UniProtKB/TrEMBL annotation:
Keywords: Cell membrane, Lipoprotein, Membrane, Transferase, Transmembrane, Transmembrane helix. Pfam families: LGT. Catalyzes the transfer of the diacylglyceryl group from phosphatidylglycerol to the sulfhydryl group of the N-terminal cysteine of a prolipoprotein, the first step in the formation of mature lipoproteins. This is Phosphatidylglycerol--prolipoprotein diacylglyceryl transferase. It comes from the Bacteria. The keyword Lipoprotein applies. It comes from Novosphingobium aerophilum. It is a multi-pass membrane protein. It is found in: Cell membrane. The chain crosses the membrane at residues 30-53, 74-93, 113-131, 143-161, 196-214, 221-241, 261-280. One of its GO terms (biological process) is lipoprotein biosynthetic process. GO terms for molecular function: phosphatidylglycerol-prolipoprotein diacylglyceryl transferase activity.
Length: 298
């Protein structure tokens, strides 16, 4: 995907013409007779499977907060939480008319999923599995949070491949600006790729390095805080380049921020709070300060 965009950008620089999404040879799915398997569906599936694989791998190391059977339960309930929460969140935050037309609400194949709604659904699923299994909820969140960017990366790339959720009009100083088939004649920012890079790839690398090369997993809440706050900052920034949903353009103009930015503000605050609390408290397995001093004196 990145090589395609790079080749297209090189062509633009040589010819001085904007990139046309249609010229990239992308398709919106795999045709299976009368049915088309959407890339977006495959992105969700790939993200969930990779998250399950990575979480299962982490459980083989000392200090894990749950057993493999709990990861199996999380795989099932988080899948439901992401799908149901994502769709209901989209209806609540972006398309309230769907709430009064249940027959349209269930048409997942027509698109319309909210990350914030999916995050709420997944959080409720983790809370249920933690309560039922008598697990430490925040540590379960830490282990799952590390792998969530897999889904964000694939999901945003799928948005680009589908030619949807394009960015705002870009000036002539943006050689990679692109004309999308449903975005009018103006060349626009490929904001889907900005999100794939920041919310997906960068956040994934940061969390993986923290988990596998440090001992921050023994500071409950820190990895969750980095994910929640990091996503919030990345999304808030990219929203300056992403075109607001048509039905929310007036809302963005009136409030000065898009709906996506307003929804990230509490995430940023929550992430910062979790990080501070995790750093102030003693890590798991560490002896109290007084006891440690007594041991050294002895």
């Amino acid at each position: 995907m990145l090589s395609l965009l790079s080749a297209a950008a090189a062509q633009v620089s040589a010819q001085g013409a904007p990139i046309h999404w249609l010229d990239l040879g992308l398709t919106r799915g795999i045709a299976l007779g009368s049915f088309t398997l959407r890339w977006y569906s495959l992105a969700y599936l790939a993200g969930i499977v990779l998250a399950y694989w990575h979480t299962s791998r982490t459980l083989k190391h000392a200090g894990a907060p749950m057993a493999q059977r709990h990861a199996d339960d999380l795989f099932f309930y988080c899948t439901l939480g992401v799908i149901l929460g994502g769709r209901l969140g989209y209806a609540a935050f972006y398309a309230p008319q769907l709430l009064t037309h249940p027959q349209d609400l269930i048409k997942l194949w027509e698109g319309g999923m909210s990350f914030h709604g999916g995050l709420i659904g997944c959080t409720l699923a983790m809370a249920w599995v933690s309560w039922r299994g008598q697990l430490n909820f925040i540590r379960v969140c830490d282990y799952v949070a590390v792998a969530v960017p897999f889904g964000l990366l694939f999901g945003r790339v799928a948005n680009f491949v589908n030619g949807e959720l394009w960015g705002r009009p870009a000036g002539p100083d943006v050689p990679w600006a692109m004309i999308f088939p449903d975005g009018g004649p103006l060349a626009r920012h490929p904001s889907q790729l900005y999100e794939a890079g920041l919310e997906g790839l960068v956040l994934l690398i940061v969390l993986m390095l923290l988990f596998w090369t440090t001992r921050v997993r023994f500071r409950p809440g820190l990895l969750t805080g980095v994910f929640v706050g990091g996503y919030g900052v990345a999304r808030f920034f990219v929203e300056y380049y992403r075109e607001p949903d048509a039905q929310l353009e007036e809302f963005a103009a009136r409030t000065g921020l898009s709906m996506g930015q307003w929804l990230t503000v509490p995430m940023i605050l929550l992430g910062l709070a979790l990080i501070v609390i995790a750093l102030v408290r003693r890590p798991l397995g560490a002896a109290p300060a007084g006891m440690a001093m007594a041991d050294r004196a002895a």
